[in-house]
Amino acid sequence: MATIKDVAVKAGVAISTVSAVINRSAPVSEDVIARVEAAISAIGYLPHGAAKALRSGNSRLIGVILPDITNPFFSMVARVIETVCMKAGYMTFVYNTDEDPQHEMHILRMMRMQRVAGMILISTRSDAEHGRRLMAEINVPTVLFSSAVPVTPYDAITLDERKASRLAIDYLAGLGHRRIGVVSGRPLVSTHEERLESCLEALAAHGIPPQPDLIVAANFDQQQAFEATRALLALPDPPTAIFAFSNLMLIGVMRALVTSGRSCPRDISLVGVGDFDWPEIMNPQVTVVSMPAAQMAEFTIATLLAEIAGKRPPTGKRTLFPPELIVRASCASAELMPSQKRRQPARAE
Amino acid sequence: MATIKDVAVKAGVAISTVSAVINRSAPVSEDVIARVEAAISAIGYLPHGAAKALRSGNSRLIGVILPDITNPFFSMVARVIETVCMKAGYMTFVYNTDEDPQHEMHILRMMRMQRVAGMILISTRSDAEHGRRLMAEINVPTVLFSSAVPVTPYDAITLDERKASRLAIDYLAGLGHRRIGVVSGRPLVSTHEERLESCLEALAAHGIPPQPDLIVAANFDQQQAFEATRALLALPDPPTAIFAFSNLMLIGVMRALVTSGRSCPRDISLVGVGDFDWPEIMNPQVTVVSMPAAQMAEFTIATLLAEIAGKRPPTGKRTLFPPELIVRASCASAELMPSQKRRQPARAE
DNA sequence: CATCGTGGTCGAAACGTTTCGTGAAAAAGT
DNA sequence: ACTTTTTCACGAAACGTTTCGACCACGATG
């Protein structure tokens, strides 16, 4: 491979001069610029990223750590980040954790070895102990997305989780539902904790006491949501509506409904959080609490870039974005439902 | 940040000795190993990736270039690659091209600046001119996935595209369909060209002459497939079945059906290529030609890793994987369809 | 006329590793 | 007891850049 030295001899100038024209870091005469550029394209020179990074102490690399790129929400976020970063002259490493804290630590280590200039961390555990281990491992500008880890000095960008729950529960309760199943996420994840807490508050506000048997945790996992819903439906007095904490879990719930021969919204109503790209092709078209995902992603990467540039120091603050209820066809009034007596408990299995 | 030198002084040994214990690249006494390891964890030393890469000439980086990570097919492939690479001690750069050749070239350049050890290139244009430009830019072990560029020395892993078309057309023709719409991809992409060619062959084998007005190209794009389908449905004599060349385009077709008030499979039958994760929640559940995506991805990365390790030189050969027809509920016998006379042409717009 | 920038160029040091040749000490062979 | 081999540790060079101080020529300033 050609090096900067080859360019220098070909153009008949010093190495440092070539560097100056490449980076426009010092004044160079028109004449020399032309010669150097000619030499560069003549021998097909491409700077060596690692050498640049080593010497300049700036890798121009950004790490993105997320639960699962297979989830359309995260892949969309990753694309936004990639695009913005590329424009700013940064490359991105995107890595999946599957929400496994140990794996997450490993990835963090790899990113630090690459001396990333900054990181975006999505949806990790958020208990204090994990927070401390995280902080020990991170010492690079970082912003948290879609989750809030306590006791960190890092900025966080999230949905207004409490409002999201309220939107869903108010809607369902407004339709007359009193037995509302909640397919929640994973304990210790802030998204889960906050949504769950305000779910209970919203239910209470409608005079509905906590019904522990209707609240199941499915770890933000599609298959677990499927199984949890099967269990919910097998209850002697099953819920008339279900609120699922994520898009993938909503899919799990829907699969459980078709497997059990339930029709939505005739037999049961459904609300999820997180929208889908093509709701028209789903059966039924689901009512969801949507989030301004693209804007959130843009704000996140802008915050990180500003912090890296040293323009804005980390404030440790949290920025909330407002959710929105999108009503489609997966909910019906509780009064219009066929009486629960008429329906048999799901066949034993 | 701590350097290897700090470790060396802390452990009271030479720098080269520390390097030897980190990389197990030379015999070191138990005693010294212990001292060095203690020093490493004491000061929290992490090797500097760029320095390693620069000196050793091995970045341990692999580039993955794909059209769009948002497409579930590609995100799944990316995950498989990430996992396998991580086990082999490589990190991955995943980048989106949106099938834009110019952007693709730019990404290629960035990857070469990072001195990636190898690349996986997915679904690019495959005409000879682009192939030449590509070859000028690439000089690193590479394997092509899901597309074949002619005149390259690189291995390619693809579906057996001809069989995929045959499976779909045989099935549809077997149901009695004679007017079969084809929502194809993008000219110059091998996947498109081969599928289209064998579509025509398969149609001919069933005594169906080419019907140019029923064949539309939608660039593998969901929205374009939507529009193309609208046009197809507005034809005086619309098709009774549609074959879409990709998962996303199939979604576009389905959206067009919904928007036009067509019911599938009553009014029109549908086959796509590429399966969906949760077909149960779709309306209707689609019949598709599926591909063994995970196995293909594993084979691809294994091939690349072997080539990087120098175990297997690039053969320039192409490996085909067999597609499979998965029959679900989106196709009906042409004879059972309401007569086409009874149906009005789609309302003008 | 002496002095002071200033635009343009250069050479060399440094970034944090790996690698290779050297050599001392210990182990093995005669 | 003397060589030969093996084992372990070391020092220094090199990887391809950036960056900084030095230098020179030249026009501007006092």
Automatic annotation (TrEMBL), chains A, B:
Keywords: DNA-binding, Repressor, Transcription, Transcription regulation
UniProt keyword annotation of Amino-acid biosynthesis present: no
Gene Ontology MF: a single term: transcription cis-regulatory region binding
InterPro entries in the record: HTH_LacI, LacI/GalR-like_sensor, Lambda_DNA-bd_dom_sf, Peripla_BP_I
Pfam families named in the record: LacI (PF00356), Peripla_BP_3 (PF13377)
PROSITE patterns referenced in this protein's UniProt entry, alphabetically: HTH_LACI_2
UniProt-listed PANTHER family: HTH-TYPE TRANSCRIPTIONAL REPRESSOR PURR-RELATED, LACI-RELATED TRANSCRIPTIONAL REPRESSOR
Protein name, as recorded: Transcriptional regulator, LacI family
Organism: Kaistia soli DSM 19436
